[in-house]
User: Fold this.
Amino acid sequence: MQLALEKLDPRQGTLHPELRAVQEVDLGDGVTVERATVFVPQGKLTHFLDRITQYVETADAAKPRNRDLVDRVRAARTASIAALWTDPPAEFPAPGQLFWWEAWLRRRDGNEVSRFRAFASATELRTGSRADLTGVCSLFHRNRSLTAK
Assistant:
């Protein structure tokens, strides 16, 4: 079963959940599933929670509301940097491997670079000097799971 990708990327309003990456994952025995990574801005989780609530409230109906979205999602969790990886999974850096990353920051309020640098400092990542008005930052670290607070 394929995910309802258009429902994961609603594009409603100026600040909304955004589909960031889609991968096909081989589970073995000929079973392949789609895995999607969605960025949910602070305060916008209700977009999905409201749809799940509507689904639950109409679950006994012949066609529950938001069935195309909810029935196709097996799990939801906080994403790590690996979830944003779009190259073949085998090319993802091994734990402990030194690796350069390039981070593209989406312009929202003009404070993206300073927030990125604060995050890098708090997680002991070394940033390059290219972090400028372009919103492109490079960073160097030993690969480890990163989750923004």
Q: What stands out?
A: The chain has two domains: 5-84, 93-142.
